[in-house]
C-alpha cells in the first residue's frame, strides 16, 4: 500500500475503501496487459512483460496484490509465485494459466497463491480480485483503529481520574504541574506550560507550571501577551474554560518530526493580530480540558474558603504571585482614589552568571553551601537575603526560581533606588568586598502613575529596566579599581563610538562646548524637577561650571530635592572633571567628562546604575557620603 494502515485512518485522511493499492501484473500477452491498463484506474499499476522485469518491480515497489502468468519462462512463472511471497510477505498473489497450464496453476495455489484465474481474463474478474483484497485491508485497518481507540479510552479514564484529583492538590502550582504532566502524556507533546489567572481582581496570567523547553516561557503576562508568544513560537493553545469560567491556558509544543501528535488542536491563527482560541476537534482533549477547568475551580473555592491558603510560596517565606497581584490591584485602586504613589521592582537572578569565567565570584552570595547543581539557587536562601533589604510593609513575591517581584506601597522611585542599594550593600557585606556589584543581580523599578496606570504596564516596564541593567557599562569596571581618575578614564575607553549605541540606557559619547554642556544639564534638571522628588550630585568649581548653573536653577529650596555640589579638584585625576548625576521619579541621568580648553569630552547616559555608581564614587572622592 502507498500508506500505512495507521496513516490511512488518521484524522483527515480518506476512508479505507478509497485508499490506493499497488497492483503488479507479470504477463507476456499484450492483450491481457492492455486489459489491466483499462481496468486498473484508481490504483497504482505495475506492468511487466517478463519475469526479470517483474522481479525488479516486486523488489522496489512491494506490491499489495500480484497477478503472475505461471506459463512464463517454460514454468519459471510458477517459481516466481513462491519467490514473490518472500519479497512481499503481505502481498496477495493470484496465478494466471491457460487450460493447458491448469496443473501448474494448481501448484501455484499450493505454493501460497490466493487463487487461480483462467486466461483469457475478463475485466470483472480483475476488479473482483482487487476489491476482495481492498476489503481485507479495510477490515484490518478498522480492527486496528478500534483496538487503538479502546486502548485510548482505557488510558483516558486514568487521565480523567488524575485530573479530578487536582481539586485536592496542595496548591495551584502543584495542580498546574500535574495538569501539564497529564497533557504531555495524553498528547505526546514535547513540552507544556500552564498559565492560570493570577486572581479575581486581575486579568494577568501566571506561568504556574512548565515542562521541557517551555520552562523559558514568560513568567506572567496578559492573555494577549501569552497568545502572542504562542503564535510566535508556533505552540498549540488549549483554553482552560467552561462556559463563563476561565481558568487560563495550556500551551503545548509539538514533538519535532511528529505529524500526528496533535490531530485535534490547531495553532493560533498566525495571520490575526490576536490569535483566536483554536477549536477543539478531538473529544478527548476537550474532555480533559473541561475536567481540568472544573477541578481548578474547585481548588480555587477551597483556597478561598480556608482564608488564602495560597498566600505563601510553598518553597520559601515569600508570598505567592497570585497574592502579590491581588494586593497590587488594591494598591492601584487606592493610589488612583487618593492620588498616591507606589513602586514595584522586578528582581532577576541570572542563572548563568555564577558560572561566567570572567566573573567567577559573581552570585556566590546566592548559592547554596555545599554548591547545588549548575544554574540552580536556593529560593528560601535568596528570599531571606532580599527580605533583609526591604521594609516590613513591602510585599516580596516569588514568580519562579530566579525571578522575584517587590511591591512597595506609598513609595516613590527614589526610595525604591535606596532599596536597590541596600540589596547591593548586603551582597558587598557578605562578600567582604566594598563597592562590589554582582553582575547577576538585575533590578528594575517602575512607579505608579509615572510609568504606567495598570499592573501589566508596570510589570513590563520593570522587567525591561531589569534586563537593561545587564548590559550596563558599570559591569565593565573591574572591582579592583579604586581611584576615581582611573574609573573615569576606563569609562571613556569603554564608551561606544558616536552612533554605535543601541540600547536606550547605553552611554553616548559627549563632545560639546562648556556652554552647550550647561544647556544640556539645565534641560535634564528641569525635566527631572517636573516629576517630584529629585536627587542631584554635580561637580562645582570656580568659573563657568555645571555646579554653578544647577545652584542657580535651585535657588529656591525644595523639601523634595536633595542637591550635593562637590569640588573634585583635590582628588587625583579629577582636576578638570565636569559631572552631573540625577535620580528622579521618572528616570536617571549621568554625565561625566573632562573640560579640555573649553570643550567637555566624555560620556552621558540614562542609566540608573551608572548614575547611582558615579554619585556614590564622586561623593566618596570629595569626602562626602551621599547615600545613607
Automatic annotation (TrEMBL):
Nucleotidyltransferase as UniProt keyword: yes
EC number per UniProt: 2.7.7.65
InterPro entries linked: CheY-like_superfamily, GGDEF_dom, Nucleotide_cyclase, Rev_trsase/Diguanyl_cyclase, Sig_transdc_resp-reg_receiver
Database matches in PROSITE patterns: RESPONSE_REGULATORY (PS50110)
Keyword DNA repair applies: no
Residues found modified as 4-aspartylphosphate: 69
Domain Response regulatory, residue spans: 22-134
Family annotation (Gene3D superfamilies): 3.30.70.270, 3.40.50.2300
Keyword entries, A-Z: Nucleotidyltransferase, Phosphoprotein, Transferase
GO terms, molecular function: diguanylate cyclase activity
Name listed for the protein in its UniProt record: Diguanylate cyclase
Protein source organism: Sorangium atrum
Amino acid at each position: 500500500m502507498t500508506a500505512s494502515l495507521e496513516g490511512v485512518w488518521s484524522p483527515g485522511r480518506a476512508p479505507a475503501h478509497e485508499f490506493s493499492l499497488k497492483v503488479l501484473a507479470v504477463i507476456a500477452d499484450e492483450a491481457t496487459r492492455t486489459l489491466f491498463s483499462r481496468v486498473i484506474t484508481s490504483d497504482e499499476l505495475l506492468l511487466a512483460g517478463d519475469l526479470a522485469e517483474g522481479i525488479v518491480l516486486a523488489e522496489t515497489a512491494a506490491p499489495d496484490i500480484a497477478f503472475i502468468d505461471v506459463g512464463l519462462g517454460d514454468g519459471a512463472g510458477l517459481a516466481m509465485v513462491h519467490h514473490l511471497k518472500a519479497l512481499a510477505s503481505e502481498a496477495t498473489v493470484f496465478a494466471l494459466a491457460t487450460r493447458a497450464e491448469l496443473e501448474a496453476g494448481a501448484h501455484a495455489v499450493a505454493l501460497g497463491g490466493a487463487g487461480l484465474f483462467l486466461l483469457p481474463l475478463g475485466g470483472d474478474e480483475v476488479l473482483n480480485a482487487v476489491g476482495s483484497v481492498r476489503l481485507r485491508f479495510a477490515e484490518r485497518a478498522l480492527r486496528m483503529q478500534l483496538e487503538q481507540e479502546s486502548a485510548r479510552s482505557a488510558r483516558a479514564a486514568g487521565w480523567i481520574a488524575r485530573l479530578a484529583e487536582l481539586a485536592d492538590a496542595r496548591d495551584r502550582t502543584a495542580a498546574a504541574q500535574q495538569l501539564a504532566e497529564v497533557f504531555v502524556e495524553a498528547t505526546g507533546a514535547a513540552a507544556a506550560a500552564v498559565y492560570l489567572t493570577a486572581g479575581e481582581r486581575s486579568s494577568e496570567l501566571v506561568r504556574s507550571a512548565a515542562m521541557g523547553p517551555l520552562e523559558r516561557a514568560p513568567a506572567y503576562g496578559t492573555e494577549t501577551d501569552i497568545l502572542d508568544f504562542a503564535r510566535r513560537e508556533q505552540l498549540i493553545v488549549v483554553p482552560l474554560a467552561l462556559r463563563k469560567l476561565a481558568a487560563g491556558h495550556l500551551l503545548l509544543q509539538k514533538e519535532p518530526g511528529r505529524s500526528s501528535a496533535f490531530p485535534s488542536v490547531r495553532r493560533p491563527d498566525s495571520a490575526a493580530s490576536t490569535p483566536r482560541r483554536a477549536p477543539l476537534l478531538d473529544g478527548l482533549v476537550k474532555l480533559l480540558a473541561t475536567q481540568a477547568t472544573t477541578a481548578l475551580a474547585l481548588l480555587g473555592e477551597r483556597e478561598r474558603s480556608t482564608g488564602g491558603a495560597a498566600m505563601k510560596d510553598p518553597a520559601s517565606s515569600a508570598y505567592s504571585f497570585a497574592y502579590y497581584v491581588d494586593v497590587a490591584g488594591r494598591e492601584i485602586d487606592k493610589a488612583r482614589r487618593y492620588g498616591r504613589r507606589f513602586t514595584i521592582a522586578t528582581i532577576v537572578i541570572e542563572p548563568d552568571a555564577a558560572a561566567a569565567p570572567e566573573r567567577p565570584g559573581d552570585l556566590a552570595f546566592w548559592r547554596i553551601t555545599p554548591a547545588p547543581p549548575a544554574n540552580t539557587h536556593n529560593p528560601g536562601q535568596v528570599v531571606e537575603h532580599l527580605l533583609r533589604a526591604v521594609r516590613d510593609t513591602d510585599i516580596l513575591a516569588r514568580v519562579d526560581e530566579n525571578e522575584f517581584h517587590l511591591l512597595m506601597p506609598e513609595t516613590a522611585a527614589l526610595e525604591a533606588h535606596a532599596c536597590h542599594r541596600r540589596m547591593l550593600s548586603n551582597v558587598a557585606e557578605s562578600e567582604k568586598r566594598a563597592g562590589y556589584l554582582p553582575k547577576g543581580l538585575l533590578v528594575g523599578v517602575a512607579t505608579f502613575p509615572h510609568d504606567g496606570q495598570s499592573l501589566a504596564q508596570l510589570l513590563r516596564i520593570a522587567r525591561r529596566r531589569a534586563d537593561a541593567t545587564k548590559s550596563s557599562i558599570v559591569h565593565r569596571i573591574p572591582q579592583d579599581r579604586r581611584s576615581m581618575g582611573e574609573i573615569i578614564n576606563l569609562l571613556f575607553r569603554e564608551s561606544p563610538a558616536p552612533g554605535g549605541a543601541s540600547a536606550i540606557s547605553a552611554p553616548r559619547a559627549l563632545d560639546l562646548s562648556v556652554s552647550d554642556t550647561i544647556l544640556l544639564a539645565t534641560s535634564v534638571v528641569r525635566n527631572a524637577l517636573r516629576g517630584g522628588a529629585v536627587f542631584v550630585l554635580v561637580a562645582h568649581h570656580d568659573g563657568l561650571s555645571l555646579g554653578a548653573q544647577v545652584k542657580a536653577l535651585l535657588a529656591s529650596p525644595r523639601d523634595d530635592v536633595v542637591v550635593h555640589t562637590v569640588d573634585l579638584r583635590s582628588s587625583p585625576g579629577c582636576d578638570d572633571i565636569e559631572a552631573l548625576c540625577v535620580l528622579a521619579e521618572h528616570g536617571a541621568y549621568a554625565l561625566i567628562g573632562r573640560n579640555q580648553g573649553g570643550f567637555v569630552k566624555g560620556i552621558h547616559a540614562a542609566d540608573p546604575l551608572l548614575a547611582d555608581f558615579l554619585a556614590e564614587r564622586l561623593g566618596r572622592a570629595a569626602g562626602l557620603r551621599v547615600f545613607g
